[in-house]
Amino acid sequence: MTSKPSIGVEGAVALIDANRLEQFIERIAEITEAGPGVTRLAYSPLERRAHDVFRNRMCELGLTVTVDAAGNSIAELPGVAEGSSDAVGTGSHLDSVPSGGRFDGIAGVAAAVEVARSVVESGLPHRRPWRFVAFAAEEGARFGQACNGSRAASGVATSAGIAGLYDNGGITMAEAMASVGLRPDRIDTAAWASEDWHGFIELHVEQGNVLETSRTPIGIVDVISGSSRVMVELVGTASHTGATPMHLRRDALVAAAECVLLCEQIAQNSQHRGTRITVGKLDVEPSSITTIPGRVIFSVDVRDIDGDRQRTTARDLLSRFQVIAKERDVDIDIQIIGDTSPAILPTRLVDLIAAQARAHGVPYRIMPSGASHDTQQISKVTSAGMIFVPSQGGLSHVPDEWTSYQELALGTQVLLRALYALDLA
Ligand SMILES: [Zn+2]
User: Fold this and answer.
1) pLDDT of amino acid 274
2) 80 C-alpha vs ligand 1 centroid, how far in Å?
3) For residue 140, how far is its CA from the centre of ligand 1 (angstroms)?
4) Which pLDDT score, from 0 to 100, does residue 269 have?
5) What spacing in Å lies between the alpha carbon of 175 and ligand 1's midpoint?
6) 232-340, which class in CATH?
7) Which of 156, 252, 275, 291 could join 151 in a cystine, given CB atoms 3.0 to 4.6 angstroms apart?
8) What is the pLDDT of residue 273?
9) Ligand 1 centroid vs 391 CA: distance in angstroms?
10) What is d(CA 32, CA 337) in angstroms, rounded to the nearest whole number?
11) How many other C-beta atoms lie within 10 A of the C-beta of residue 303?
């Protein structure tokens, strides 16, 4: 225990500072590839530089920081209770999508740093260890699979399991990890033990516009969508657009177009608003005005808050793609590149966070998360909860992504109160 005078949780909450949150987020936003917005891809040297900033801040505050084989950075503040080794944790990720924004993930890490600072500087006594985590490689944009660091923490990721993951340039995830000094061969050592954890709460920007349109400053997540992702390759015959009659074509792009429309149709006709299907990536070869497209590769992302429905929808889609390919006489190859189940977050944590918001007059709403988050993985290890703060215009994964620092500070205060309540629970 420190010799500083304790002024209780109110003293710590009073230290949460919007300007400091802004400074941290601005500092991390500088670590980017050239071009619009922020580009700091999973398992890139830039992502590791952002982790270095996190580590240095935490070391300055006197915390012990470790980096595991999967690249997660974990800072620990010991608790005062004898024999209480099960920790209370918070954190999020520091990587981004290509040309993304500065808040997705980073907001939750900035909140973690600010909570750590206010706890240290106020001398707030807490029973259990508090751990502050910057997860690695959360975004699925580079390797298809999302939440790679937290999957390792939850024990789901294995060296064999990640072997099939590679980026657009043909670099495998294992090669990318090794090139930044991580240990893909020892990824299993990053797994957390349930007995070391008491609970975990992640703060994240909403990435949608439910909070903004309802003028609610805080969202408390009760369920996180799962996703099934596949890459589909259609191969027809490339040939001259003038010389090849319509009835003799094997046009891979028109077959793909039918598949894309089918995705929209299936999601729209679904009985539930929880099903969302997107084709977000489509490459056409040879991509020439005067050549019939001979080869098309596209991605399909199926999201749902119901795991059975998610997989049934994905299976249904793939079998109907086969029919379309057959009818149009093109070859089809399908590869599953990601599959994550939805996570239902425990009511105990939803209620704990809600009680803190209510007690301090902060309006909130309980809501599902359409996006995947590290918490989805962490909920396999320990009780996990999520706090959303509003995204202006509902925009995310774009350079215009924005959250007001006042709202982020309010969210961080609720986070600190909730972590403190969890510490005592
Ligand atoms: Zn995120």
Assistant:
1) 81
2) 32
3) 10
4) 86
5) 23
6) alpha beta
7) 156
8) 73
9) 12
10) 26
11) 22
CA distances from 262 to 58, 266, 327 (A): 49, 6, 14
Q: How far is the CA of 400 from the centre of ligand 1 (A)?
A: 15
pLDDT digits (tens, 9 = 90+) for 279-299: 999 999 999 999 999 999 999
Within a 10 A sphere around the Cβ of 96, how many other Cβ atoms? 33
Domain 8-225+343-424, CATH among 1.10.10.10, 3.30.2380.10, 1.10.30.50, 3.40.630.10: 3.40.630.10
What are the pLDDT digits (tens) for 309-318?
A: 999 999 999 9
Determine whether the annotation assigns residue 397 to a binding site: yes
Sign of CA dihedral 349, 350, 353, 355: negative
Between the CA of 371 and the centroid of ligand 1 the distance, in Å, is: 8
Decide: helix, strand or coil at residue 37: coil
- Judged against a pLDDT cut of 70, whether residue 361 lies above it is answered with yes
**Ligand 1: distance of its center to the CA of 370 in Å?**
11
Distance 105 CA to ligand 1 centre (A): 4
**Strand-pair partners of 387:** 203, 220
Domain spans in the chain, listed from the N-terminal domain onward: 8-225+343-424, 232-340
Residue 247 labelled as part of a binding site:
no
25 with 103: CB under 8 angstroms?
yes
Does the pLDDT value for residue 241 go beyond 80?
yes
CA of 256 to the centre of ligand 1 (A): 30
Using one digit for the tens of pLDDT, what is the confidence trace for 116-165? 999 999 999 999 999 999 999 999 999 988 899 999 999 999 888 888 89
Residue 206 in marked binding region: no
Q: What is the pLDDT of residue 270?
A: 76
Q: How confident is the model at residue 338, as a pLDDT?
A: 84
Helix (H, G, I), strand (E, B) or coil at 301: strand
Paired with 298 in beta bridges are 232, 282
The verdict on whether residue 204 carries a ligand-binding annotation is yes
Q: How far is the centre of ligand 1, averaged over its atoms, from the C-alpha of 207 (Å)?
A: 9
Proportion of the chain in helix, strand, coil states, percent, rounded to 5: 40, 20, 40
Tokens found for residue 302: 């199926």
Return d(Cα 425, Cα 415) in angstroms, integer: 15
